């Protein structure tokens, strides 16, 4: 087994109502992180790690202490922790980076890892999206809207955010096979366009769709697109090591 692996996972949705036991779900993820720590050089979380996160100037949401403590311990031990914002945890500012010692990325991350070039993004910012989704995404990332939202007491906003998330999930935002196929194909097409403008990428890795996929998107270069699935019912992730290449896995809780 390689002693220097990079791990990629997304869509843990810690604290979401879809988990029968949110604390048990968090404990399971922490135990898995503990198990990989001896041979991890870096861990990349590709968004929607927490189902809802909003940092006020001096207040952060309650909960997730086991998970945050574990990634802090990993960062303290020298493991690089990178957290890309998703559409559920986009309202992070500087708390996690300053207090946990991790790197926060908003948008596309184009980075060379162990000699291979990776493009990483949650996935909501790539590919074709519905007009309604685009409007909401722009609104939620608008600094004025953020300041206005921060002025509302958390007793209202936290409950609203969790109800919105639960309704979206129960409504089947990505429910039927045709829509899934269309969304995956749109990400592949967006990756191909990025590759044409930025040659030399080896791997495109995304979350967001809660779908597992691993396909070649350029036959000449062998560039691949990997979709990471989720940690709600799939428990899937990917690893990269120079002596093993990129491998997708499923954790058995």
Short structural summary:
By secondary structure, this protein is an alpha/beta fold.
Question: What this model shows, in words?
Answer:
With 253 residues, the chain is of the alpha/beta class. Helix content is 35%, strand content 23%. The chain has seven helices and eleven strands. The protein has helices at 22-36, 65-76, 95-100, 131-140, 143-150, 154-170, 177-197, and strands at residues 5-9, 40-45, 80-84, 103-105, 109-113, 116-121, 203-206, 212-218, 223-228, 236-241, 245-250. A six-stranded mixed β-sheet has the order 4-3-2-1-10-11, with helices on one face. A five-stranded mixed β-sheet has the order 5-6-7-9-8, with helices on one face. A hairpin with a 4-residue loop joins strand 8 (212-218) and strand 9. Helix 1 (22-36) runs parallel beside helix 2. The radius of gyration is 18 Å and the shape is globular. The chain starts with a strand and ends with a strand.
């Amino acid at each position: 087994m390689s002693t220097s692996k990079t791990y990629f996972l997304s869509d843990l949705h810690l604290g979401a109502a879809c988990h029968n036991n949110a604390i048990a779900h968090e404990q399971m993820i922490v135990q898995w992180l503990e198990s990989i720590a001896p041979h991890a050089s870096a861990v990349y979380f590709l968004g929607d790690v927490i189902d809802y996160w909003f940092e006020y100037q001096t207040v952060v949401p309650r909960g997730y202490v086991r998970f945050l403590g574990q990634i802090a311990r990993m960062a303290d031990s020298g493991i690089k922790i990178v957290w890309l914002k998703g559409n559920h945890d986009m309202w992070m500012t500087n708390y996690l980076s300053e207090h946990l010692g991790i790197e926060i990325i908003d948008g596309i991350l184009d980075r060379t890892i162990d000699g291979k070039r990776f493009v990483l993004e949650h996935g909501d910012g790539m590919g074709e999206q519905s007009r309604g989704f685009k409007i909401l995404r722009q609104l939620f990332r608008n600094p004025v809207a953020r300041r206005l939202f921060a002025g509302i007491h958390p007793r209202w906003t936290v409950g609203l955010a969790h109800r919105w998330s639960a309704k979206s999930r129960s409504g089947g935002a990505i429910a039927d096979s045709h829509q899934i196929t269309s969304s995956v194909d749109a990400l592949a097409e967006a990756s191909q366009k990025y590759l044409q403008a930025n040659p030399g990428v080896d791997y495109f890795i995304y979350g967001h769709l809660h779908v597992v996929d691993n396909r070649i998107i350029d036959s000449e270069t062998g560039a691949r697109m990997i979709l990471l699935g989720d940690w709600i019912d799939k428990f899937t992730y990917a690893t990269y090591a120079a002596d093993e290449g990129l491998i997708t896995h499923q954790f058995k809780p």
